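B., you asked whether I could sanity-check this one before it goes into the benchmark set. Here's the sequence:
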Amino acid sequence: MCSRLLVVCAWVATVVLAGCGATPVPEKSLILATTTSTRDSGLLDELLPAFTRDSGWQVKPLAVGSGQAIELGRRGEADVLLVHSPAAEEKFVAEGSAGARRLVMHNDFVLVGPRADKAKIRGASSAEAMKKIAAAQAMFVSRGDESGTHTKEKDLWAKAAVTPGGSWYQSTGQGMGETLRVASEKAAYTLSDRATYLIQRGTLALEVLGEGDAGLLNVYHVIEMTKKAGDRVRADGGKAFADWIVAPSAQGLIGAYGRAKFGRPLFTPDAGADEAKLGR
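And here's what the prediction gave me:
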């Protein structure tokens, strides 16, 4: 619980030398644990000011991998989660400390790499692409951080019946934006959510070489936390954010984000949709 208090105090402190106790925590403040893709794509910059205007709640976002976000929720150090690792989410909710889990949006993952495409994966299915990368021992850069993207990558290797390793396989242990930068510098392949790739495409020597598989679907859920995770959890704030992000106004913002710049939205709003039919 101390780390949660330090996060909030560091956020609201205006008198550095006075320490945490000098400045009261705002009455309506919450901690959102989310993925680096929502930050690196710019979506949080679109959503959070609108939520504050609509609700009066101030938000401190913690952008980490989905696995880390879930762990923050488990420890009572976040009030609401916005994550994209469905199997891990379902396991976490089953533990009993979380509240409602609701579908928010989706986009997709893409396999990106250098134009030269040493492994010749362009147009191949995701499983076949992973086999070709391993067979060619072409450099692959993994996030290696137990994020939703890293979890999807491991799933793709498993489907390809490949155990990656050796000098051709490297991990950054960092977020999507930094991993894309490293892959670009090393002329390597990597797996990215499409939104972060598109936002950073102009600075990268990487192209989309694999896309469109049903297995590359990237689904995001919002999960409310409850007092069962810890006494400091602002369950009212978490519920306020969760209710807002699945409501029509926020879903409209999600559906419009990126359209003007890229000619297509970077995320597809899904609140109320039948998740079983996504990607069909």
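One thing to flag: The beta strands are 29-35, 58-64, 80-83, 98-113, 140-142, 169-171, 190-193, 207-210, 217-225, 268-269. Otherwise nothing jumped out at me.
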